[in-house]
Amino acid sequence: MSISLIVSAIIFILIAARQWLPSTIRIWHIMTLGAIALLFMRQISLKDAFFAIDWDLILYLFSVFSIASALYDTGISAQISQRILSVKSPGLVLTSYIIVMAVCAAILTNDAAAVIGVPIAIVLAKNMKWGLIPLLITLCATVTIGSMISPVGNPQNILIANAGNFENMFVVFGQWIFIPALITMFLSMIWLKRFFKTSDIINYEATKDYKGEKALTQKWPALLSAALLLIFIFLASILHNVDGIYHPTIGQIGLAACLPIYIASHERRRILREVDWPTLFFFISMFVVTGSLLQSGSLQHFLKVSNIDLAEPETVAFVSFFASQLFSNVPVVEIYLNLLQERDTQTLMMLSAISTVAGNLFIISAASNVIVLQQAEKFGVKPFNFWQFFFLMLPVSIISVLVSYFWITWYAS
């Protein structure tokens, strides 16, 4: 067993045991320390670590985090909260929240939706007398499932869309994944709603209140950046296979979209400070850890000995789901794409769907889960722990994997 594999396992164990560690230790601390340990033990060189990081993805995440931070400062979270609460009916309030967050995840990525969704969850929990912990876990499920249907809904989908070279990536994702995502969302919400009034998990303590609206009068740069992001992504998907024109990367698209924020906004420094830097460090460190693991040859040796065909639907589903629990879904997809010889649409869609819904099982399985947890702590709220998340999300994981697998297998036949 390689040192890289051992370090990866230790990282997973420490995150699982985080509730017994000092409260000052965050998940990104654990991942970053793991990456530093591998560098010190020379399991990966600084040069190789640098090139193991998908900087285009990091730039895109920085851009959407900047836009999400700027949108939050405009008071959009407070405005959405007020609109949702005006519905009155508890069932419609929850449904409205789920739809808004799912759409936000599909458009701005699940990570950006998590940033916007946490303060809304705090307001809804207080006004509707719901438990904040199950509502935050519902947010995790919502942004994960909602992100399935879009090629820019989450980082792993971005990697797959780039690798697939689809004629129209939005149409392809919609055809293959929209129906299983819709079914999964409906069944998952029926399950999670049962826990909103459960006494043993509804209590939480907020050391500081969510104020809702910040003193930001110049709102147009944030709104313009959000609009530009949608326009640029839409144009890129349409012109993807047109020859003779420049095709920007997803990172370049994100940076171009957020330019109004950093050029015209008077609050550019505050927005820059409020970017979710811990999650960016988490991703950078995660790429280093998985780069070391890939460089060690452990996975390649295992595949060679076991004679596994990575293009088989059963293999794609099994490996992408269980590997995501140990290494998180983004680096798993990165590794899988590197090892995959044939990239047909069914294989890529199975990889996309299963690796995404795999994020429903453990906190570390998806970065958006980590963001929800860290954002809650940022507002002074004691969020869910590892085991609370696992026990509520286990049925969601089973449902989402089964529905996604059988639908994609049937659709391909």
UniProtKB/TrEMBL annotation:
Q: Which domain of life is it from?
A: Bacteria
Locations listed in the record: Cell membrane
UniProt keywords (A-Z) are: Cell membrane, Membrane, Transmembrane, Transmembrane helix, Transport
Record-linked InterPro entries: Arsenical_pump_ArsB, Cit_transptr-like_dom
Q: What is its main location?
A: membrane
Q: Show the stretches that span the lipid bilayer.
A: 28-45, 57-78, 98-125, 132-150, 170-192, 220-239, 245-265, 277-296, 316-337, 349-374, 386-408
The Citrate transporter-like domain covers which part of the protein? 17-335
Which N-terminal residues, if any, form the signal peptide? none
The topology of this chain with respect to the membrane is: Multi-pass membrane protein
Homology family = Belongs to the CitM (TC 2.A.11) transporter family.
The name this protein carries in UniProt is SLC13 family permease
Organism equals Microbulbifer echini
